[in-house]
Amino acid sequence: MMMKMKMLTGPSSSSSSSSSAGYSKLMPSLPPLFFSSSSSSSSSHNNSFHSKSQNFNTLDEALSCFNRMLHMHPTPSIFDFNKLLTSISKMKHHSTVVSLSHQMYSFGIPPTVCTLNILVNSLCHLHRLGFAFSVLAKILKLGHQPDAATFNTLIRRLFDEGKIGDALHLFDKMIGEGFQPNVVTYGTLMNGLCKVGNTSAAIKLLRSMEQGNCQPNVVVYTSIIDSLCKDKQLTEALNLFSEMIAKGISLDIFTYTSIIHALCSLCEWKHVKTLMNEMVDRNIMPNVVTFNIVVDAFCKEGKITEAHDLVNTMIQRGVEPNVVTYNTLMDGYCLQCQMDEAVKVFDTMVRNGCVPNVICYTTLINGYCKIQRIDMAMYLFEEMCRQGLIPDTVTYSALIYGLCHAGRLQDAMTRFREMVACGKIPNLVTYSILLDYLCKNCHLVEAMALLNAIEASNMDLDIQIYNTIIDGMCRMGELEAAKDLFYNLSSKGLHPDTWTYNILIHGLCKRGLLDEANKLFIEMDENDCSPNDYIYNTIIRGFLQNKETLRAIQLLKEMLARGFSADVSTTTLFVEMLSDGRLDQSVKQALHKFLK
Description:
Elements: H1 2-8, H2 16-19, H3 23-26, H4 59-70, H5 78-90, H6 94-106, H7 113-125, H8 129-141, H9 148-160, H10 164-176, H11 183-195, H12 199-210, H13 218-230, H14 234-246, H15 253-265, H16 269-281, H17 288-300, H18 304-316, H19 323-335, H20 339-351, H21 358-370, H22 374-386, H23 393-405, H24 409-421, H25 428-440, H26 444-456, H27 463-475, H28 479-487, H29 498-510, H30 514-526, H31 533-545, H32 549-561, H33 568-578, H34 585-594
């Protein structure tokens, strides 16, 4: 038994200072729970104790009961203490569970494996994994046998902390020492592996499980099917789905919903309909989540009529639409710029007693902003505030976009300042909107001030933010500043993308700096950033506009060889060149060759 204790006291990565400490060292290090004299009971209370009456509405009730139990003579059964600790744990007062365990220990009440499992669970919730493994050591030291619940809790916590190797190592040691995992153990491992994207390892574990005495259930299969669906491995997911049916494993709504979600993402509408009908045939009724997934998929594909019909169908089947359903349908109409229909859905939702939330108002505000109905967007913004709803970052971003798009940049900046004053933290979308319109409206000084503020906030910026600024600099003729920012991107942990190159090459060509533009163009391939058709057309037009026709034709030839084609602007320039009587005959012949 001591060998088992040595092997099972902690994961390979745990520090000895935390996982090697015994239970007796653990408990004194934890703060004792303070009990006031008014809540303390003496032995004069009725000594009889009925565990069936342990239904607590508040933590104070539970603590009062615990104190009475602690001072009863004779002391109630450990099973009664376990029930009380379980109740407190379900209230999520895990620190209290640890403190009460300390009290029990100091009063000499011997714990059972169940008691210690409750303590392990609470310690794991408190992120005290080292102490949790110390309790495992105590279980072994007392001569008890840890059960599957002990290991399941520890394995789950290891996965939650990203210690995948340690979780698998503990599972292997558990098996090696003769402890039998149950279906929850396997399910915990597979779910953890799936969450970190290692679905193939989860499938191997499933096959290993099938070889033993513990057979997988619907939960185990569904976790893997869901992971395969998220990985877009629908064929493999459907194979497992069929395997479940062949083995007689009862399917549930979660299994079907995972498959339906994957089919929707691939626009396999016929299969979606077939599967939903099959659910009903198996007496598994689609719930609001299942319907919402399909409604959302229809809306995103522009199938708004089908989405609305499906909402009507769910109502006919007795499934009440929730705020997600209505908001999804509103968003679908907004995407089609059918704002009158979106408002009708909103009104229906209110009539049916479903209270609109911030997301509902934001959806409508965003829809009105996209069609430049700022008056309606502002009205809804004020209305949601009157209803006691607090606009969030997304709401403000939508309104700021609408104001910018309508040319009301100063009003947009006013809303931005209001947003910050209200404690709402702007995100990259908010900043990108403002920077884009500041740069497009030649407010480069304000844009740079905003960029400096963003950088000072330690927000993780992407290349798009800097593309916007570089483009603004090029528009304003600040080419040297644009080049400096371009070549300093690496110091910010970023690398230019194709669009960054396109912006700067266009700026250089516009200034007539063709050699620099061509040098940058050549650097693209060297920096593993292959030029696309936009880049080719940009630099070809630059050469043509600066009378470098032969170099333009050479690049045209290269572009066509790569499978790209000249756009309308580039083609127009070449056609104009052909009508120019001053062109050399050899140049004209070359142009005719490529423009046939």
